[in-house]
Specification:
Order of helices and strands: HHEHEHEEEEHEH
Number of strands: 7
Distance between the termini: 19 Å
Strand order of the largest sheet: 2-1-6-7
Strand content: 15-25%
């Protein structure tokens, strides 16, 4: 059971806002999860963008929450970049605003966050790392490219069973503007809507 504050946000997600074109983009991820689920295998999803700082972390956390919400326990979500930087503080803050409980485990140039979506499950550990970091799966995973530069820059991802581009606009464009909070929230809700839609189709 997700924390009540997250459940309230989830109740507002509108699947009808997803265009048919976008549903076509999401379908390969649905197919990957469905096949693994039917075979009762672990479902490893590695969300990848250039810096592993914003979109890939938002996707990782929302996908794990969606799997819990739809009771698909064999899903384990990861994230990585083509280079390691740091999880951007506003990405963590946006998840906290959505109802996730966030604890900073270590500070420094690349802080480590523990992010909880319910009382009983292990927290999701978030920090910036390359997609092939030992923290991430090395085989039998879906590589989900969340930004166009990672999609273009990573034509081949070693160990990935499937490579699925599902790109999102970067909220980084608004980092130094008055719309920063609003735009991060907007992107977070879009990612949540699309990933909850994906998991809602798993039977």
């Amino acid at each position: 059971m997700l924390f009540e504050s997250i459940q309230k946000l989830v109740a507002t997600l509108d699947f009808t806002s997803i265009s048919e074109e976008r549903k076509t983009v999401l379908q390969p991820l649905v197919d990957f999860i469905q096949t693994k689920y039917a075979d009762k295998k672990e479902i490893a999803l590695n969300f990848i963008c250039t810096h592993n700082s914003r979109r890939s972390h938002l996707s990782q956390v929302w996908a794990q929450a969606a799997a819990a919400h739809y009771t698909i326990p064999q899903v384990v979500c990861y994230s990585g970049g083509t280079e390691a930087t740091a999880m951007y503080p506003m990405a963590a803050k946006t998840l906290e605003n959505a109802g996730f409980q966030i604890k900073m485990l270590s500070e420094g140039t690349n802080p480590v966050y523990a992010i909880k979506y319910n009382q009983d499950q292990h927290p999701i550990i978030c920090f910036s790392k390359t997609f092939d970091d030992t923290f991430n799966p090395q085989s039998e995973f879906a590589a989900i490219l969340t930004c166009s530069s990672a999609d273009q820059g990573c034509p081949f991802i070693a160990g990935a069973e499937k490579r699925i581009p599902i790109t999102f606009e970067d909220p980084k464009a608004f980092d130094n503007t008055p719309q920063k909070v609003e735009k991060y929230q907007e992107r977070s809700v879009q990612i949540a809507t699309e990933l909850f839609y994906v998991f809602s189709l798993i039977k």
